[in-house]
Write a structure and sequence with these properties.
By secondary structure, the protein is an alpha+beta fold. Helices cover about 45% and strands about 15% of the residues. A hairpin with a 5-residue loop joins strand 10 and strand 11. The protein is elongated.
Length: about 400
């Protein structure tokens, strides 16, 4: 039974006692929380709750519960609120907001770094930010250098970042059938190269340019080159030039079963240089996974998938030699694998270290023993310290834009 009681807050204590003792179920007729709170406030004020004894306070508490239908805990909170401030008002919910640490300028700086490096993975980008402060003293990166990888991805999702970078294209991996006859065993020594070719499409005029990509298995030192044709005559001088771009002695040469590498000319060249040659095993596609990932993360990311005429091979070679290869080896961090063995003897590969190929080379035990004759550790360090990572990336991007403008104009 619902009963409307007018001015119920003005009853005296004896009337309230009789009301509470009544057996009928009585409800407060109001759907508005503000009216309920105002009524409770008026009752507590009119009955001078703070001056009442324990028995009277308990009676008023039961009266409020019966009239409002609120729980005992809620009534206790309202009375405590009235005792503290003299008012009973709804609490305005305010969502917890953490202080903003990274400013608009930081987000724009991150976008500029990603634009220069073409959006590397989170750990690699964080390593670049750390190097900008630690190695090159660029204090504008100080806050970003301490960012977590998870929050770095959060900033990349922010509105300001997306406004700063209007064109973001996710890299697509390239799948090439790979096998291997014998897996090379570098045993922690640099100088064991993985090689592969990347074709830059076909056009009305014929075949496009071919890219030759070579990566050291231990340090991930990389050298890319371009050739108009895949043949012994073109590859022999090109391979000599590429191997000279590695700072250490070449000990192994591993490829798939393509005829461009498995031929007498290349074999004679490697035999003359005392370089071990290995080739792919069937149904072991993971054996040459390193070079395949580099094809996608470097060649396809920076050059793309579109057709480029083979006549532009010399321009591409100059860009690789003077701009892209130095950037990759001195300024672009790579994920380095650490093999952990658990209590069951199982091997697990963890990618926690992000280092440039130069840093990985210098971290080896006595790295000078692996260098080519006439090259020193200090010389490599001077090259790496000549410009910061992001400055080198911007320099490479400017050269690439100029290259593509020439290719478009002369296509």
């Amino acid at each position: 039974m619902n009963v409307r009681v007018h001015q119920a807050e003005k009853l005296d204590l004896e009337g309230i006692r009789r009301f509470v003792a009544a057996s009928e179920e009585i409800r407060f007729e109001s759907a508005d929380r503000g009216q309920v709170y105002a009524w409770v406030e008026g009752l507590l004020m009119g009955q001078r709750y703070a001056q009442q004894g324990k028995a009277a306070r308990g009676l008023l508490r039961r009266y409020i519960e019966k009239m409002t239908g609120l729980s005992r805990a809620q009534v206790t909170r309202l009375i405590a609120r009235y005792t503290a401030s003299g008012r009973v008002e709804p609490t305005v919910y305010r969502r917890r907001r953490f202080p903003q640490r990274y400013t608009r300028a930081d987000i724009e700086l991150l976008a500029a770094v990603d634009e220069a490096h073409e959006t590397l993975s989170g750990p690699a980008t964080r390593r670049i930010l750390e190097r900008e402060v630690e190695l090159y003293g660029h204090q504008q990166y100080a806050r970003l250098a301490t960012i977590s990888v998870a929050h770095l991805y959060n900033l990349r999702k922010s509105r300001r970042y997306r406004e700063r970078r209007l064109n973001y294209i996710k890299t697509r991996p390239t799948a090439v059938a790979i096998g291997e006859r014998r897996k090379p065993t570098p045993c922690g020594r640099p100088g064991y190269l993985r090689l592969d070719t990347v074709h830059q499409g076909d056009g009305p005029e014929g075949k496009g340019v071919y890219h030759i990509n070579a990566v050291d298995q231990v340090t991930q030192w990389e050298a890319a080159a371009a050739t108009p044709r895949i043949s012994e005559a073109y590859l022999e001088p090109l391979l000599k030039t590429m191997m000279q771009q590695f700072p250490f002695r070449i000990l192994g040469f591993h490829t798939d079963n393509g005829a461009e590498f498995i031929n007498k000319t290349v074999a004679g060249l490697l035999e003359k240089l005392l370089i071990e040659q290995t080739k792919s095993r069937p149904r072991q596609s993971g054996d040459n996974g390193l070079i395949e990932t580099k094809n996608g993360a470097v060649i396809r990311k920076h050059i793309g998938y579109g057709y480029i005429d083979s006549a532009h091979a010399d321009k591409l070679n100059a860009f690789y030699r003077d701009f892209l290869n130095p950037y990759l080896n001195y300024h672009r961090p790579c994920a380095q694998a650490d093999v952990e063995i658990d209590h069951r003897g199982r091997k697990r590969v963890r990618y926690k270290r992000y280092q440039t190929p130069l840093e990985t080379l210098l971290a080896l035990d006595k790295p000078a023993q692996y260098l080519r004759q006439g090259l020193s550790i200090n010389a490599l360090k001077r090259i790496g310290a000549a410009r910061s990572d992001t400055d080198a990336a911007r320099r490479m991007q400017q050269a690439k834009a100029k290259l593509f403008e020439q290719l478009r104009f002369r296509a």
